[in-house]
Amino acid sequence: MNARVVAVQLALSQYADAQRAMSMAAYMKGHFAFYGVPAPQRKACQREALLDWRPDAASLVAFARAAWRVAEREMQYVACDALDRHRKVLSPSSVNVLEELVVTRSWWDTVDAIAPVVGGLAKSDSDVSGLMSQWVDHDHMWLRRVAILHQLRWKHDTDADLLFEFCARRAHESEFFIRKAIGWALREYSKTNPDAVRGFVVDHAAVLSGLSQREALKHIQRQG
After folding, report:
1. From CA 155, how far away is CA 78, in angstroms rounded?
2. Cα-Cα-Cα-Cα dihedral sign, residues 68, 126, 141, 211
3. What is the pLDDT of residues 94-106, one digit of tens each?
4. Which of these, 112, 155, 151, 105, lies nearest to 128 by C-alpha position?
5. CA 81, CA 183: separation in Å to the nearest integer?
6. Torsion of CA 41, 20, 115, 43, to 10 degrees
7. Is 32 within 8 Å of 69 (Cβ atoms)?
8. Residue 224 pLDDT > 90, yes or no?
C-alpha cells in the first residue's frame, strides 16, 4: 500500500462518523462507502498528511491509483485534489491514467474533478486535445462528459468552435449527465462570451434538451 495513502487514511479515520457516513452514502445513491468526514476536515487531514510532499508525475499517479483502491470515497476526493494541485508535473502520457480513473468507480463527483486536469493537458498538448474528439463519441458516458467539460476553466482561451461542436454532437442524447454537462459547459463560457452562447442555443433549440438550454442560459438571464 502506498505510504502516503495510508497516512491520509489514518488521519481520516480519527474523524470517522458512522451516522454522517450513512448520509453521505445515501446522497451518492449508495454507490460508495464513506468515512463520514466532511470536506473541510478532510482537506485539513490531507494537508497535514501531505504537507511535505512534492511529487513527480510517477509518484502522483501512483498515489491516485492507490487511493482509488480504497473503499471509502473520501480517498478518491483526496486523490482528485492532489491531481489538481500538482497537475503541472503531469505529462501528456498521464492522460492514460486519468482515463483509467474516469472509467473506474465512476460517478459525477470524481469525473467532474478530473475533467479540468485533463483539460490542462489538452490545453498544452495537441495529441491530448485530439483525444477529446475521440472521447466525445466514446461508448463510456463519463468520457463523453469529460470531453464536453474539459475546457471549463479556459475562459478567453476556450476554443468556442470545438465547444459548440461537442455540444451539438451530443445534443441528441437522453442521458441526464450529458445534457447537464452541455448546459454547464455552455453556461461557463457564457460568462466570457454571452452573445455566442445565446446564439448557439437559439440556433440549436430544436435539438438541445430543455435542461441543456436552461442551464446554458442561467448566467445570461441572471445578468438581465
Report:
1. 26
2. positive
3. 999 999 999 999 9
4. 151
5. 24
6. 10
7. no
8. no
pLDDT tens-digit map of 55-83: 999 999 999 999 999 999 999 999 999 99
Please count the CA atoms within 13 angstroms of the CA of 208 that sit on its side-chain side: 28
HEC assignment per residue over the chain? CCHHHHHHHHHHHCCCCHHHHHHHHHHCCCCCECCCCCHHHHHHHHHHHCCCCCCCHHHHHHHHHHHHCCCECHHHHHHHHHHHHCHHHCCHHHHHHHHHHHCCCCCHHHHHHHHHHHHHHHHHCHHHHHHHHHHCCCCCHHHHHHHHHCCCCCHHHCCHHHHHHHHHHHCCCCCHHHHHHHHHHHHHHHCCCHHHHHHHHHHCCCCCCHHHHHHHHHHHHHHC
Residue type, position 210, single letter:
G
Beta bridge partners of 33: 72
Euclidean distance between CA atoms 35 and 20, whole angstroms: 8
Task: Tell me the C-alpha distance between 202 and 204, whole Å.
Answer: 5
Is the CB of residue 40 less than 8 Å from the CB of residue 82? Answer: no
d(CA 125, CA 98): 15
Question: What nine digits make up the cell of 51?
Answer: 504537507
Q: How far apart are alpha carbons 151 and 71 in whole angstroms?
A: 30
